[in-house]
Amino acid sequence: MQRIDALLRDASARIDPADAALLLAHALGRSRGWLYAHGDEVPEPALLRRFEALLARRLGGEPVAYLTGTRGFWTFELQVTPDTLIPRPETERLVELALERLQPGAALRIADLGTGSGAIALALALERPRAQVVATDASAAALAVAQRNAVALGAGNVSFRQGSWFEPLAGERFDLVASNPPYVAQGDPHLSRGDLRFEPAAALSSGADGLGDLRTIVRDAPAHLLPGGWLLLEHGFDQGATVRALLEDAGFGDVATARDLEDRERTSLGRWPTMG
């Protein structure tokens, strides 16, 4: 029977050390900090078998977030399942940009389209508690995950509606609309590699050029934005110029693209003109 420090060392030689620590902590029901403080302990056989099963699945390519059922985002932990896209750090940049345009303490209306696990909607709702946030998704299974996350985080100012993009929001207008839609081209070889193999295809790819859903959202957004309202869209690192052109052609002003921490164009935005 191996000690915890030996288990970690051996697993780290087979998978990413951070992943090894996460999986061992999950299998033992402990924190990662506890592992390093108790490296001389020997896990019970049942817990060891649980870890070995998780390790085998990770070696088979399954994402750590699906194996543990959680992923950190913004300032909180989210439940995730294979029904939802795994939240990624670059999406936090979209949240930052949105918050810069949402006055604290104001009673604003916000929409998050294609919410998945609820990452964007919940971050904005918790940071702007007086705002009313509506989150949509075509997947009932994804919405169920997002709703559980909202309850766990105590985000009572978020409502959830099933439907594609703006379809559940007929006749409604918002101060800000945010979305991280599918933007990978169908047939892109990356879809058959790494973690992407296990994530929902409908949440990843859109059309031959990956821009199908982005075109739909930009086209329909003007009917759902208040004067001066903002549209923020996450997209592929090589799609910034195209998305800016879509926004400008649709009549948006203040069009810009922000870069992520790796200096890649990742989030484009535009403002719907004010009246008068």
Summarize the structure.
With 276 residues, the protein is α/β, with parallel strands linked by helices.
Structure in words:
By secondary structure, the chain is of the alpha/beta class. The chain has two domains: 4-60; 82-271, Vaccinia Virus protein VP39 (Rossmann fold). It has helices at residues 4-12, 17-28, 32-37, 45-59, 64-68, 89-100, 119-127, 140-153, 212-220, 240-249; strands spanning 70-73, 76-79, 109-113, 132-137, 158-162, 174-179, 225-234, 253-259, 265-271. The strands form two sheets. Strands 5-4-3-6-7-9-8 form a seven-stranded mixed sheet, sandwiched between helices. Strands 1-2 form a two-stranded antiparallel ribbon. Strand 4, helix 8 and strand 5 (158-162) form a beta-alpha-beta unit. The longest helix has 15 residues, at 45-59. The N and C termini lie far apart (75 Å). The mean pLDDT is 91.
Quote the CATH topology of the largest domain: Rossmann fold
Q: Estimate what percentage of residues fall within beta strands.
A: 15-25%
From N to C, what is the helix and strand string?
HHHHHEEHEHEHEEHEHEE
- CATH class categorisation of the largest domain: Alpha Beta
Q: Mind describing the biggest β-sheet?
A: 7 strands, mixed
Residue-averaged pLDDT: 91
Q: How do the strands of the widest beta sheet line up side by side?
A: 5-4-3-6-7-9-8
Rg result: 21 Å
